[in-house]
Amino acid sequence: MCGIAGAMTRDGSAVDPTLLNRMVEALAHRGPDGSGVHLAGDVGLAHARLAIIDLDGGDQPLFGPDDALALVANGEIYNYRELREDLAGEAFRTGSDCEPPLALYRRRGLAFTDALRGMYAIALHDPAERRLVLARDPFGIKPLYYAETETLFAFASEPAALVAAGVIAARVDDARRDELFGLQFTTGGDTVFRGIRRVLPGETLVVEGGRITGKRHLNALPPPDAKPAARDGAAAVRLFDRLFAESVDLHQRSDVPYGMFLSGGVDSSAVLAMMARLNPDPVLAFTAGFPGSGAHDERAHARAAARAAGAEHVEVTVTENDFWAHLPEIAAAVDDPCADYAVVPTWLLAREARASVKVILSGEGGDELFGGYGRYRGAMRPWPFTKAVRRKGMFEGLGVLRRDAGSRWRDGFAAAEDAAARSGWRSRLQRAQVLDMADWLPHDLLTKLDRCLMAHGMEGRVPFLDVALAAFAMPLPDRLKMRGRHGKWVVKQWLSEALPVAQPFTPKRGFTVPVGEWIAAKGAMLGPMVAAQPGVVEAVDPEAARHLFTSSDRRARFAAWTLLYYALWYRRHVLGRPPAGDVFETLTTAP
């Protein structure tokens, strides 16, 4: 786990080491335990390390036996022990989980990622073939970005590193900003920064002479015609138990202490139940709560689940004062913006957890794989009553935006819908799941988790997002995912037996953060400040924006939150101004 960066020149000249050092410096929060730089011919690789496995011997870059191949990686290859057994005869130099990919590449070429079970963003230099290879895990758990200029190809774990090193200027793409306002995240390969793109989940890029010359794709999900491994409830629950135990066990491989985030919901409660089964010592679980607010507080439910599982439970209170004090730092941490208000408790939980552990397991991915979202019910309705997923943008109809985006904010999502439709027959539920796996999961939920934890030098692991578990979950008949008003039926049925106190079939209120309540309380003062901010004034009508901050309408409050978050994000990542205290101090400091 770490930050990686590098470059390949177009004219064959050596990469400037100053460029690599600047990128490493910008990624230091991701890797506070050490750094390494490698220069060879027209390629440079850089690494900032967060030591999790092989603490003494796992420094990067890693090299092949003849020192020709070089690799830097961000992530964890959970099946590294099994891969080492399969690769008998290889002369491994370290105990690192990231060394087996080098041997796999020598044997399989670009297909080396097919055998990896884990989360990763890998950069590999093959001087014999005169190429640079970039690969990202099929779920998109670990981030990887790149920019192509007239002189070089450069990549990094965060866009901010490319900007900080001077590879590319921080300029906002208006269309992607409209998409951010409509969806709270941006879709596909383009980011909100002009000229900075994502390596897509499951994508492997080949770069030669500083240009992309080839692509390969590894799917996270089985093909549409995959047959379900279970067709009745009892068999499905038994198989889930086996596969989930295997995945959680793999995700606990670590040479440093680990814990988990417990929200009180089904997915994190399932992770808790399985960790409690597999660990001889009490699991360390962290839960956020919002005392004194109108938001549903899950601490009591989480506390009961933790007690029943024999876990050590840490409750982290998130107050209005915390929100105002830390939001500038939080926006600064999430350089690929996602206006998901859950960034607030996630960042604060990570800050608390870092005092005790270096690795956190979390429940992301359970809803997408097993059909947990309420919106899936609308997607399952028979035609012509089927409801399109995300059919209305957050700012649509509010009369706030200067530029009428119409439905263009949905273009990227519509493209993903078309791609899913062309990929082969799937049920309406499965198509909705595929869409969320393509964009919502990697570009919102996983981005949020990655940046909030890495801001504190922590690793986040998501055991639901495992290739074997996905191969089981996606082909399941719809009736084993959605029954009546209950999504995730298989997971809930398993949890009702594994941890009955979790009461998975009891109607739950969704996880909320009272940002609308907090913003409204100071809206009359805050609205004019936000509306006048650089970046915001380019996008919205100031008078209309001010009214959002005093409105009682739910959508208007979320739009106000988005503008506040965007204003703070823009100051840090476009104007280059670090936080200057709390929200009010930062917004009143000259840009």
Write the layout of secondary structure elements.
Blueprint: E1 2-9, H1 17-26, E2 35-40, E3 43-49, E4 62-63, E5 70-77, H2 80-86, H3 100-108, E6 118-126, E7 131-136, E8 145-148, E9 152-156, H4 159-164, H5 174-183, E10 197-198, E11 203-208, E12 211-217, H6 233-251, E13 258-261, H7 266-278, E14 284-289, H8 299-308, E15 312-317, H9 320-333, H10 343-353, E16 359-361, H11 366-370, H12 375-380, H13 411-422, H14 428-454, E17 459-461, H15 467-473, H16 489-498, H17 515-521, H18 523-531, H19 536-539, H20 542-548, H21 554-573, H22 583-588
Describe the protein.
By secondary structure, this protein is α+β, with helices and mostly antiparallel strands. It is built from 22 helices and 17 strands. Strand 11 (203-208) and strand 12 (211-217) form a beta hairpin. Helix 6 packs across helix 16, helix 9 (320-333) crosses helix 21 (554-573) and helix 18 runs antiparallel to helix 20 (542-548). The longest helix has 27 residues, at 428-454. The protein is globular, with a radius of gyration of 23 Å. The model has no long low-confidence stretch (mean pLDDT 94).
